[in-house]
Amino acid sequence: MDQADQFSATGIEHHEISKTFGSTDLVILRSKYSGDVESGDESVRLARYLLEAGYAVNDHKPTSGIRVILQGYRGQPLGLALENSGWQGVVYEESEPGRFFVNGAVLENKLGKWPGRMPETAPH
Q1: Which of 68, 11, 2 is nearest to 34 (CA)?
Q2: What local confidence, expressed as pLDDT, does residue 43 receive?
Q3: Best CA proximity match to 79, nearest among 51, 98, 106
Q4: Which of 18, 29, 49, 114, CA to CA, is 20 to 30 A from 43?
């Protein structure tokens, strides 16, 4: 089964965060996942795919960053997989392997100018 078939109920939310001198934008990508990921490399590909999808939505630039919430995910924590592959500033909890956050500066460094391109296919 293609990994794309294992996603359901995917949604992207935007939250404006007020600060003293302006505001920043946070993008939250939520999805349900019914597959198994067996290796760290697969975890990195899956995490990057989700970030690229969130970064491609051109309604609001994720200046604060992107928070990914992947319900049903079983495997190595996606944030840890990204961190182990050289991504810096990834925030995650090992007890919730499908949840992680990457700040806006890191996204721009890794994914280039916003908005990025929507990934063509899910990793498999």
Answers
A1: 2
A2: 93
A3: 98
A4: 114
Query: Whole-angstrom Cα distance, residue 55 to residue 5?
Result: 21
pLDDT per residue as tens digits for the range 41-95: 999 999 999 999 999 987 788 988 999 999 999 889 999 999 999 999 899 999 9
Would you say 47 and 73 are in contact if contact means Cβ atoms under 8 Å apart?
no
9: Cα within 13 Å, side-chain hemisphere:
9
CB-based contact 28:66 (threshold 8 Å):
yes
- Residue 1 banded pLDDT, cuts 50, 70, 90: very low
pLDDT of 2 over the 70 cut:
no
CA distance linking residue 51 with residue 27, whole number of Å = 10
φ and ψ of 8, to 5 deg: -150, 160
Its pTM stands at: 0.85
